[in-house]
């Protein structure tokens, strides 16, 4: 029986709160950035909500690939930090930045030069494609900036300093919100720019976020303050080690994000009101999921540091507590979504009665699966990746998305022609399957390995 008593586990909770609270706040702010755009653009109708939602699928895929790469990188940074081998951290971080710049450059080129072609694959509504193109051509300029912030932010958390990226996100949110108000609706003497105003606000906010993170790193965190020479002194052994662990995570996130994009495509083919309902649902859901991602990232750092220090039994015990907490938090968050969904949607969005009903039903469906989502977040992000068991986590996630979720989405939408919320329910069956397939690996403790 796992004890979650604070008195018996004081050291565990102190470390958990120190790492997770800033991460939760930062994720909440990042999600709020999307919510601010979503809500303000939502005042202009369902078409523009669908336009920004589909346009942001490109950004979504990029961030998940970056998340995969940085997850692999951070495993080593956390373990080197736990082992006190700080001299190797800069080599690992430099490798992560090279990867981030390469990936973001590709996505920038796609978003800037071929936006209408990409959006045309996802929606048959010409208005959605037109407005989405206006948005993505501006926002794509921020992709490279975001990639650099992402990499330094991940690394900062891995060495036990999650407050810097949190601070940058707070200021970025405030700037984005203020500029949205001014540029979308045309206040303080500015012209009303609509969806283009939202894109410009996001771009400026991302630039400010990067400036804050870099200035903080180079003033107070010398262990991460890399220079040009670090890019040319990366050891081949480091590349081999990190690549072996990181590549499965990158493929994992790439194929998972493509699966999510296929879901978005399916919802878009059901209709513009359906995709608007799902995009609103995803945005609101992301606000509540920050607790799950906070736990997941905290477990990754704490387990990685503990494994790096060679304390295998302690890491296994920590993992049991994280899993128990994930179930408890999932139940609480699921209830919170169910109770607050009508209030949130009615007060924040200007929707037709049909779109409102679709959104509420979809949110309630997601609430039912929240405990499974939380539990799987710990397994994938924390447990398996912290010990470098990334190949198994990749196979687990890709199998469930592409062999279960995607086929069920097509069957629900195009064969059974179900309403969008039933299609979402079918898709989320993969979360249940993932839990049961991941459980044997979890109980075997094969993941609990020291990598450095």
From TrEMBL:
What InterPro entries does the annotation carry? MATE_fam, MdtK-like, YsiQ
Q: Where are the transmembrane segments?
A: 12-29, 58-80, 92-114, 134-156, 168-189, 246-267, 287-310, 322-345, 365-384, 391-414, 420-443
Which keywords does UniProt give here? Cell membrane, Membrane, Transmembrane, Transmembrane helix, Transport
A matching Pfam family: MatE
Where is the protein situated, by its record's location annotation?
Cell membrane
Determine if Repeat is one of this entry's keywords. no
Q: How does it sit in the membrane?
A: Multi-pass membrane protein
| KW Nucleus (keyword) present | no
Q: Which NCBIfam families match?
A: matE (TIGR00797)
Q: What is this protein called?
A: MATE family efflux transporter
């Amino acid at each position: 029986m796992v004890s979650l008593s604070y008195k018996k586990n004081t050291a565990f909770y102190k470390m958990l709160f120190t790492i997770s609270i800033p991460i939760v706040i930062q994720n909440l702010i990042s999600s709020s950035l999307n919510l601010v755009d979503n809500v303000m653009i939502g005042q202009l109708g369902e078409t523009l909500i669908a336009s920004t939602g589909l346009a942001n699928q490109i950004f979504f895929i990029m961030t998940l690939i970056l998340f995969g790469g940085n997850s692999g990188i951070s495993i080593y940074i956390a373990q080197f930090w736990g082992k006190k081998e700080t001299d190797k951290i800069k080599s690992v971080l430099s490798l992560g930045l090279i990867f981030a710049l390469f990936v973001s450059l590709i996505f920038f080129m796609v978003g800037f030069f071929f936006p209408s072609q990409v959006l045309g694959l996802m929606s048959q509504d010409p208005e959605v494609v037109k407005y989405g193109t206006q948005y993505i051509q501006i926002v794509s300029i921020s992709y490279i900036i975001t990639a650099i912030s992402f990499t330094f932010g991940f690394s900062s958390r891995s060495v036990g300093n999650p407050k810097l990226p949190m601070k940058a996100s707070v200021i970025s949110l405030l700037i984005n919100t203020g500029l949205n108000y001014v540029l979308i609706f045309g206040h303080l003497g500015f012209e009303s720019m609509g969806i283009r105003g939202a894109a410009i606000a996001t771009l400026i906010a991302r630039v400010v976020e990067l400036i804050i993170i870099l200035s903080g790193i180079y003033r107070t965190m010398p262990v991460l303050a890399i220079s040009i020479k670090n890019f040319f002194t990366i050891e081949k052994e480091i590349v081999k080690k990190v690549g072996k662990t990181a590549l499965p995570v990158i493929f994992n996130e790439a194929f998972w994000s493509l699966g999510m994009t296929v879901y978005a495509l399916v919802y878009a083919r059901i209709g513009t009101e359906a995709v608007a309902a799902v995009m609103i649902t995803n945005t609101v859901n992301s606000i509540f999921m920050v607790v799950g991602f906070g736990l997941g990232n905290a477990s990754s750092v704490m387990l990685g540091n503990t494994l790096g220090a060679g304390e295998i039994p302690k890491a296994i015990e920590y993992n049991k507590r994280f899993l128990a907490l994930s179930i408890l938090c999932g139940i609480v968050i699921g209830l919170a979504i169910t109770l607050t969904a009508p209030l949130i949607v009615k007060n924040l969005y200007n929707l037709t009665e049909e779109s409102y009903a679709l959104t509420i039903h979809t949110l309630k469906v997601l609430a039912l699966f929240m405990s499974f989502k939380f539990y799987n977040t710990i397994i994938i992000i924390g447990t398996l990746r912290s010990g470098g068991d990334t190949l198994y986590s990749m196979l687990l996630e890709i199998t469930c998305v592409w062999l279960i979720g995607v086929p069920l989405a097509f069957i629900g939408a195009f064969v059974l022609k179900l309403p969008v919320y039933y299609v979402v329910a079918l898709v989320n069956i993969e979360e249940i399957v993932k839990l049961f397939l991941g459980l044997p690996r979890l109980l075997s403790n094969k993941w609990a390995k020291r990598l450095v």
